[in-house]
UniProtKB/TrEMBL annotation:
It is an enzyme of class 3 (hydrolase). It catalyses: Preferential release of a C-terminal arginine or lysine residue. It comes from the Eukaryota. The keyword Protease applies. This is Carboxypeptidase. Carboxypeptidase II is a dimer, where each monomer is composed of two chains linked by a disulfide bond. GO terms for molecular function: serine-type carboxypeptidase activity. GO terms for cellular component: vacuole. Keywords: Carboxypeptidase, Disulfide bond, Glycoprotein, Hydrolase, Protease, Signal, Zymogen. Gene3D superfamilies: 3.40.50.11320, 6.10.250.940, alpha/beta hydrolase. Its EC number is 3.4.16.-. Belongs to the peptidase S10 family. GO terms for biological process: proteolysis.
């Protein structure tokens, strides 16, 4: 079945807001002013209490030191239908009141930013082997930012909806709007971040979520009256699905150029596949199926890494199931496959986050509202997701003009969303070059290459797969540091 078709592209102490208005306003204020200050005071106190209720003192199996300032809980994004998204937030390790706010999103669609981003990749607490406990990650991105992980959309991880028909309506627009509502309501609970510089990051299918959310925020920010201004400064995406044509072409070329398939297969693909058309013909599906067949033998997400040979749990099984399920779907000639996730890590996370004491400490699944176990990737979300947007490049053009800081990075050993396709995407934007393609360095070694355009920067990470912060944690941290403070990567050995 796998060879029949190809993959559908398709993861502080909180400073109480200063309530300096204590006594003096009683003397000077008019009744009206008095009333409004009073309500501000109540509001601030209420948000502080809500915030403290979300504080996580200590998670089962967490190391005693260093201390980690963390919060987690639900934010309602749609009252009428009862939709709530689950977040995990870490204050910056030092000077949290000076550091920006960074949101991280994983893709899938259907994969959890807590299971992957936070607990396997860039969070300060990562799940240990076999899901026994947590370990401190010394390359965590909350060294550089206040770091927010969100499980999105509803149906992913601990996030849920009380209206099951919502789950049949998921597409990029739906996700962007719910995520925007999450941000607005989260900032009400954490008002000390309201004016903070805000950046959005993510990987894989979040290559769609991130620019779409940035665009949504940008448009909503135009409504000055709404008083919901979010201080968005830019976004950064890793191994991102960006444009279906270029990503597909890149996948085929990468497989051939990295000796995954023969010249004959590649010649056939070139002959029968027109990637400009999003509907692949049967001939193209069969030819591309040869690539996916080979990628079942190795790890498509990191082609030089050993394959995870744990008993086939979770993602692998889910992936295989997805292959069969979508064969019967008529509207898409392509197979759906998660963008980017290693079964070994998913099984550790699934062990850990399904423990009742962990869920309790985590403020998750309180009324046991989840229909089943917590899963790192949801197969049903993947198979029902409406892939109606084939390219987010027009959003790039728009937001580059708007002056947002935009970076794209790529682990160059990823076969799923390979660096070749990302290069085509970036080149298609037609931006003038500011600094030529050249190496960047870390620890006296070439860490990757980068090219700077007027309007955006592209960076590669040498030897990393789809999950850059997992494979190359030190390089990943250097990268996010350079992005957030808008400085150049090291160009000297
Ligand atoms: C969903 O329903 C449960 C049970 O009625 C309720 O406790 C919960 O608050 C609802 N969630 C939202 C976001 O409205
Ligand atoms: C792709 O196929 C679907 C269903 O068969 C059809 O509705 C759609 O118009 C096709 N798109 C293109 C670009 O050919
Ligand atoms: C998918 O989303 C598009 C755009 O939002 C919409 O026009 C279309 O009807 C949706 N398709 C399905 C099957 O829900």
């Amino acid at each position: 079945m796998a060879t029949e078709a190809a993959a559908r592209w398709l993861l502080l102490h909180p400073s109480l807001p200063q309530s300096s208005h204590k006594k003096q306003h009683l003397i000077f204020a008019s009744l009206l002013l008095f009333a409004s200050l009073q309500s501000f005071h109540c509001y601030a106190a209420a948000s502080y209490n809500e915030q403290e209720a979300d504080r996580v003192a200590f998670l089962p199996g967490q190391p005693r030191s260093p201390q980690v300032s963390q919060f987690s809980g639900y934010i309602t994004v749609n009252r009428q239908n009862g939709r709530a998204l689950f977040y995990w937030f870490f204050e910056a390790q030092t000077l949290p009141s000076k550091k920006p706010l960074l949101l991280w999103l994983n893709g899938g669609p259907g994969c959890s930013s807590i299971g992957y981003g936070a607990a396997s990749e860039l969070g300060p607490l990562r799940v240990t082997r076999n899901g026994a406990g947590l370990e401190f990650n010394k390359f965590a991105w909350n060294k550089e930012a206040n770091l927010l992980f969100l499980e999105s959309p509803v149906g992913v991880g601990f996030s849920y909806t009380n209206t099951s028909t919502d789950l049949t309506k998921l597409n990029d627009g739906f996700v962007a709007e719910d995520t925007y509502n999450f941000l607005v309501n989260w900032l009400d609970r954490f008002p000390q971040y309201k004016d903070r510089e805000f950046y959005i990051s993510g990987e894989s299918y979040a290559g769609h979520y991130v620019p779409q959310l940035a665009d949504f925020v940008y448009e909503r920010n135009k409504d000055k009256k709404a008083n919901r201004y979010i201080n968005l400064k830019g976004f950064i995406v890793g191994n991102p699905l960006t444009d279906d044509q270029y990503d597909s072409k890149g996948l085929a070329e990468y497989a051939w150029s990295h000796s995954v398939v023969s010249d004959e297969i590649y010649e056939r693909i070139k002959k029968v596949c027109n990637f400009m058309n999003s509907n692949w013909t049967n001939e193209c599906n069969q030819a591309m199926g040869n690539i996916f067949g080979q990628y079942q033998e190795i790890d498509i997400y990191n082609i030089y890494a050993p394959k995870c040979n744990l008993a086939q749990t979770s993602t692998v099984a889910v992936g295989a199931h997805a292959f069969e399920a979508s064969d019967q779907e008529q509207f898409s000639k392509r197979i759906r496959m998660f963008s980017g996730y290693d079964a070994c890590y998913s099984s550790y996370a699934e062990k850990y986050f399904n423990k009742p004491d962990v869920q309790k400490a985590f403020h998750a699944n309180g009324n046991e509202m989840l229909p089943g176990k917590w899963k790192v990737c949801s197969n049903s979300i993947l198979s029902s997701y409406n892939f109606s947007v084939l390219s987010v490049l027009p959003i790039y053009s728009k937001l580059i003009k708007a002056g947002l800081r935009i970076w794209l990075y790529s682990g160059d050993a990823d076969g799923r969303v390979p660096v070749i396709g990302s290069r085509y995407c970036v080149e298609a934007l037609g931006l003038p070059i500011k600094r030529d393609w050249q190496p960047w360095y870390l620890n006296k070694q070439v860490a990757g290459r980068f090219v700077e355009y007027h309007g955006m920067t592209m960076v590669t990470i040498r030897g990393a797969g789809h999950l850059v912060p997992l494979n190359k944690p030190e390089e990943g941290l250097a990268l996010i540091d350079a992005f957030l403070v808008d400085k150049q990567l090291f160009t000297n050995r």
